Amino acid sequence: MYRFFLIAAFFLGMPMAGLHAQGGWKVTASGCREGQPGAGTTSAQRAVVRYAADCRSYQRPVMPADVLRAPGCIQVPASCFVRIIRDGRSVNLDGGKTYRLDSLEAALGKTARLSFMSRFYSFIEKCMDETTDEKSVVEHHRRHMDVTAGIKGFSSQDYPLSVTLLTEGMVSMEPLSFYWGDDPQADEYEFRLYENGSKVERMMKKLSAASLDITAAELGLRDGASYTWQVVSASNPALKTRPITFRVDAAGPGRIREQVEQMPDYDQLTREEQWLSYAYALEQEKFFADAERVYARALQEYPENRLVRQTAAHFYSRMDMLDVARDLIAR
């Protein structure tokens, strides 16, 4: 059985000039193997995969989220493995060899452009390009809000209180977290929940904080039903969020996970890549809250993995949770 091990966490704090820019070959997995592909990972590492821009001085360790440029070379020890991606396709580099990046074009996987894995790899590339540092995260957030706010109305003149996307779209029966923008003029907020198709208010809860953590049972959610929630300032009704709609599908996340696990090459992914592919699939089906739970789990298990941090930061930025995204990149 193969097991992929991450490059030592020590190196994650080292300056890696030239390895984090846009373009080039992007690293999604790098490390030594023991066991089967995707069986699990650890930060313990004996051998180190290295990169040399001049193909002579192999001083830089190669880690997930690195960007490597031709005509450089990758030196892969016999016990190690590297996966690099470009344009939605992957190349697996086995150990015991040194590879010239400018000779790998022909080795690009023939993954169908519309396949799940191709779309997932393209997604990872985009996340890496737009989260290289705090400045790029802020710029990505601004562009995304400019495009989305006019449609979604994160905050506007009519709805001055901003709101995140986590509880829009689809939800399971897992506990939910509702977030909205805090306003100094609002001493207290009223959280209101309605079941769609009915004018009956299912819940009205007064809160001093600009968030609410609550279970599906406490909300009285029914599988298959759809709901709308809104927050209004108790003292100033003009201060309110836009109405947010979601539908309950209790079995949705489990069904999506089964579909992802049946994808070709899924078993070849490292555990980190598997978490990211699952989160990506959940978001594609608009299970934002469940995707956030997967990212949180991946961050808890692999806090030193920069690819996990950058992909999660990209997600939180899209959810209009910029502070969380910036904190992940600043670590």
Write the layout of secondary structure elements.
Blueprint (H helix, E strand, L loop, with lengths): L24 E8 L17 E3 L7 E2 L5 E2 L4 E4 L3 E7 L2 E6 L2 E4 L15 H14 L4 H19 L16 E3 L4 E4 L9 E7 L5 E7 L3 E4 L1 H4 L6 E8 L10 E5 L3 H10 L9 H14 L3 H14 L4 H13 L3 H9 L1
Parallel strand pairs: 9-15
Antiparallel strand pairs: 1-4, 1-6, 2-3, 2-5, 5-8, 6-7, 10-13, 11-12, 11-14, 14-15
Folded structure, characterized:
The chain is of the alpha+beta class and 331 residues long. It has two domains: 9-110, no CATH class; 112-331, Immunoglobulins (Immunoglobulin-like). It has helices at residues 116-129, 134-152, 216-219, 252-261, 271-284, 288-301, 306-318, 322-330, and strands at residues 25-32, 50-52, 60-61, 67-68, 73-76, 80-86, 89-94, 97-100, 169-171, 176-179, 189-195, 201-207, 211-214, 226-233, 244-248. It has a five-stranded mixed beta sheet with strand order 9-15-14-11-12. It has a four-stranded antiparallel beta sheet with strand order 4-1-6-7, covered by helices on one side. Strands 3-2-5-8 form a four-stranded antiparallel beta sheet, with no helix packed on it. The chain starts with 24 loop residues before the first strand and ends with a helix.
The termini sit apart by 33 Å
Q: Helical segment tally?
A: 8
Strand proportion, as a percent range, falls in: 15-25%
Measured on Cα atoms, how large is the radius of gyration?
22 Å
Which strand order do you get reading across the main beta sheet?
A: 9-15-14-11-12
Q: Give the biggest sheet.
A: 5 strands, mixed
Name the overall outline.
elongated
**Alpha-beta content class:** alpha+beta
CATH topology of the largest domain: Immunoglobulin-like
Helix content: 25-40%
CATH evolutionary superfamily of the largest domain: Immunoglobulins
Residue stretches low in confidence (pLDDT < 50, at least 5 long) are: 1-21, 35-45, 150-155
Number of domains: 2
